[in-house]
Amino acid sequence: MTTSRRVAGFTLVEVMVALAVVALALPALIMTLYQQVDGTEHLRDKSQAQLVAANKLAELRLLSQARGSLLQGEDSGNSELAGRDWSWLIRSSTTPVQSFQRVEIEVRAGEDNTSGPALYTLNAFMSSEIENTESTDAGE
């Protein structure tokens, strides 16, 4: 008596179809992952550039108050934040409102402040009427 047993398993055709499906899906998955990582890096860079611009604006406010006048024209330089170099460019211009000036701070990655578009641009308005906050009653 001979009985034929059927062995459970995948045929060669089924294995080849499964490999073809994986071969088509894997590149799409890798590209999606790459785009996600690239987007995350860009958001990190943009967030750090925003911090550099906010720091420069705070510094500009303190210096303007200490000098008693606002920055006129342009100023540029480099800063370091999170172990990276950042270049910044500050432009100050008048506005239609007499006592206000427009301040624009552009931040770029690296030390060259002219290469490529700015990662972050901060626009602010500052009053040209700087108040002197020194106290005249010295502890009396």
Question: Would you mind describing this structure in some detail?
Answer:
This protein has 140 residues and is an alpha+beta fold. The protein has a four-stranded antiparallel β-sheet with strand order 1-2-3-4, covered by helices on one side. Strand 2 (84-94) and strand 3 form a beta hairpin. The protein has one domain: GSPII I/J protein-like (Pantoate--beta-alanine Ligase, Chain: A,domain 2, 2-Layer Sandwich). It has one helix at residues 12-67, and strands at 73-81, 84-94, 100-109, 120-127. The longest helix has 56 residues, at 12-67. It starts with 11 loop residues before the first helix and ends in a 13-residue tail after the last strand. This is Type II secretion system protein I. Component of the type II secretion system required for the energy-dependent secretion of extracellular factors such as proteases and toxins from the periplasm. Type II secretion is composed of four main components: the outer membrane complex, the inner membrane complex, the cytoplasmic secretion ATPase and the periplasm-spanning pseudopilus. It is a single-pass membrane protein.
Q: Could you tell me the strand content as a percent range?
A: 25-35%
Q: Could you give the order of the helices and strands? A: HEEEE
Q: Which structural class do the helices and strands define?
A: alpha+beta
The fourth-level CATH homologous superfamily is: GSPII I/J protein-like
CA-to-CA gap between the ends? 118 Å
Report a brief summary of the structure:
By secondary structure, this protein is of the alpha+beta class.
